[in-house]
Every structure is written in structure tokens, then in C-alpha cells.
User: What shape does this take?
Amino acid sequence: MNGECILETRGLVKQFNEFVAVNGVSLRVERGSIHALIGPNGAGKTTVFNLLTRFIPVTRGEIRFRGEDITGARPADIARRGMVRSFQVSAVFPALTAVENIRVALQRKLGTSFHFWRTERSLEALDARAVELLAEVGLAEHSDTVTVELPYGRKRALELATTLALDPEVMLLDEPTQGMGHEDVGRVVALIRRVAQGRTVLMVEHNLSVVQDLADRVTVLARGQVLAEGSYGEVSKDPAVLEAYIGAPA
Assistant: This one.
């Protein structure tokens, strides 16, 4: 790898009592790349995400972001530094409109989160940026739509917009196409490609056609360890990867 490394783990370990969920994972994510983390169920992918964003503490090892050790940082500090995560389940406010959801995220960026007692006029200053973000994810015409009325794929697009509202340098996307039909998958793949311009993306994704389409580099986990790493073409032909996924003899 010749590019600049923006996010790195060194010998990352997470142990729950006697069970080792993540076992010595060393990962390098290049600035400006789309890097996919894949593997069969139980491989430790989401646990790695939880460690990177400090939702759970590291047992051993080190996490470095832009060259700085963030292993002991708080989750809020991670987000403020510019690494923001989305979740498997769409995390938006269903009773708010699309633009109101973006406005809440923009308030977080300003440090005025959830100040619902502020006057409507004081929050209108955020609307221009909120509308820009909705347009960026193809939701401009749904600005005033109550979120619960949006189709599932467009809810995920809205979630991406709320992530973008925090102005992330690195976006961690956890199963961005989970539960989607073919049409929504295609729309979200195009959306990820668009919002990745000028940013770094690390994503966990089960849909291998999405990984093939988007990822510059792929890391394969199995039983909490790195099994293979390289381009999609390289890892998809690796006998150990085939064995882990479909039980073919290595």
C-alpha cells in the first residue's frame, strides 16, 4: 500500500470473558479510499466497528487516526475528530421531516444538540445547509416529508445525509444496503460512490456485488482474525476465503 494511511489498528483484540471476538486485527485504511470489511457471520466485523468508534473498550492493541493514538478516546471525541459511523438499523427520527432530521444533526455539529426550546427562527439559519445535504443524497423533493413515510432505501439515504451533516473525514458504514431490494441497492451504491468523493469510507457489507462494485481494497475477517486482504479480485479467488464462505476445501 503506497497511499497515506488515515486509520490504522495494530494487533487489535477484544475479549468477552473467555471468548475472543477480535484477535490481533491489524488494519490500514488509505486516505480517500473505499475499504470494505467482509467475512461470514460471527467474523467480528461489527465488533471491530464498535472498537474503532469506542462503543466498547479495547482489550489489547492500538487504534490510530491521522497518526494519533485514539485507543482510549471517548466516542464523542472520535466523532469530533472526524470519524462518524452509521448503523445497521436506520437511525433517524421517524416523526420529524427529512429537513428536521438534518437540522438536528447540524445542531450536533454546532454543539447545540437537541435545543428544541430554541425559537424556530434561530434554527432557520441551518435550513440552507440542510437543503444542500438533502440534495446531495437525492432527497431534495422529500425535504418536508415526514420520515416515517419515506421508503426504506430513502430512509438510509437520509441517514447518510445526517452523517454528512457532521462533516466527517472518515465514514464508517455498517451494512449500508442491508434489507434492501435490488433497485434501492443500486441507488445507495451510487450514493455512496458520490459522497465518498473527498472522503474515506470503511464499510461492513454482506452483499459481495456491492463490495466488488465499490471497494478499492477488501479485508476479510474470519473467527476474529484477518484471513486475507487485497483487491476484490484477489480475495475472491483466495482458497482460504472460499473455504470460510462456502466450505470449499482450501
